[in-house]
Write a structure and sequence with these properties.
By secondary structure, this protein is an alpha/beta fold. It has three domains: about 15-95, Multidrug-efflux Transporter Regulator, Chain: A, Domain 2 (Orthogonal Bundle); about 110-245, Response regulator (Rossmann fold, 3-Layer(aba) Sandwich); about 260-355. The protein has 14 helices and seven strands. Strands 4-3-5-6-7 form a five-stranded parallel β-sheet, with helices on both faces. The model is unreliable at about 10-15, about 100-115 and about 355-360 (pLDDT under 50).
Length: about 350
Amino acid sequence: MTFAKSLFQQEASQANKPQPTFRSGAVARIAGMPVATLRIWEQRYQAVRPVTAASGHRLYSSSDVERATLLRRLTAQGHAIGLLATLETEQMREMLHAPQITMPANRPVAQKQLAMRVVVMGQALSSRLQRLIDRQPLGSALQMVAVFDTLVEATEAAQHSVKPPVDLMLWQATSLHTGAWQELRVAQNAWQAPAVAVVYRFSSAAGRAELNGAGASILYEPLDDESLGQWLASLNRAKTQTDEIASAIDLTISNAESLAKQSILPPRFGDTALIQFAGLSSKIVCECPSHLAELLLQVSYFEKYSSDCANRSAADAQLHTYLQQVAGTARMLFEKALEQVAIAEGLPLPLVPTASSVQGV
């Protein structure tokens, strides 16, 4: 009996021992989300249920912190917060560790659209965005990585913390005036955001013109969420198109570098000889030799043209050097094709040009 009583007292002591608690800011940092998002999930969905201290501060337990972290990770995978809020913590753990369906590597880029990562300045706007995300008009197409009250706060936070990757800086401005762009540019540079967008309530024509001229996307803040969602969706589509163009440019540069490693030989046939060959081959039924000679002339002319452009313009030298490499490679292929056709048709090959006749290549 004495042992049982002692054990009971130990268990009671453990139960009465104060458990660690966390303020909302600490929970948000641990879970990796804005404080505004945590509050929305708590107040609107009762996804987490902290206790309120005598001081009025919300205090979260360790289990609350785990739950908030699970909610953040699962919503990042595309699950709706409205559904997650009804689940037990253990159910969310199982969802998180369930096998994920991966997208095929050869799927087109347009179908692998990633969420647009946004830094938001404006608590009211962040609440509207969260509502759009929860209702699924934007779904997983938008992700708020940070929310601030002002541009100054956003700039200071970027200078004193590790910044996640950002696609867009979105500013909710009560009024726009000339000179506002400088403050926005400072915040954009601090976050290294490739694009900025502004929703406003009041603005002068000069203020709008300044932002438009600087490349910002601006919108008079609509009262309905649908119009706001459509605008954001258009920004996301523009981002996707920009990403695809960037990928195409990278591929072009890669191809150019690959072509640059190839040795482009001087032309095998002179222009005059090709013209004569085209006239000679037209006397037979098959016109392939004539067409090949004409194509070869056109490619050779373009090769010379690209070489001249590369020498004249330093700004476009890389592009025209690439075009010259492409044309030179094509010319060599056409020369080989012309040789094979001439042999098959029993035609004499065009005369090989002398060194003095090779110009511009």
